[in-house]
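ugh ok fine here u go
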Amino acid sequence: MVFRRGYFTFPVEQPLFFFKLAAMNSEPDIPHDPKPWQVLDRRYVLDRQPYMTLREDTVLLPNGAQIEDYFVFEYPDWVMTLAVTKAGEFVLIRQYRHGIGAVHYELAAGVAEKAFSPLENAQRELLEETGFGGGEWRLWIQASANPATHTNTSHIFLATGVERIDLQQLESTEEITVRVLPAVEVLRILRAGEVFQALHSAALWRYFAEFGMPGIRSEK
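structure:
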């Protein structure tokens, strides 16, 4: 049995029938949970590494049903940073997103290079896109943008006490403006739906859930 990548094939160590899709961040088993699917065949129909690989699987469900063409996007991991300055202001960016044809507020983010840790990637992206760095860093959220079709993990970091230490270092294909906003303004744009990227919005909402909203005394 082999995997097929375009016109090329390569062997696998065991028959695909016994291959099961494993969650990258497995949770404890819960009684009566749905069971994993079995992969009967796997074909690569588009290879644009390192940015995206499109895979087509034939899968067998536990109830005996079969899906001949289930498409999966093999993206590299992504990193994002919720950056807060020493003054308690949020470092956000604005850039055009061609998929939706619009500009919105976002966190500094990018593709994780395998040669570096998620933290190192996140620190590099924040510095390149905003010129901010330093501070104290901790992992804030690990999540999937769409676990039904995406294989990758998004690593979101919380960086507090950051400061501007350099100029932006943008690539020729990037046009990014930096906005440093107080918490009350960030909360306003969140409520107005102006942070359109779901994972970025989730990271910001968690921040306000844990540390309190502007004008509302926190219990912490």
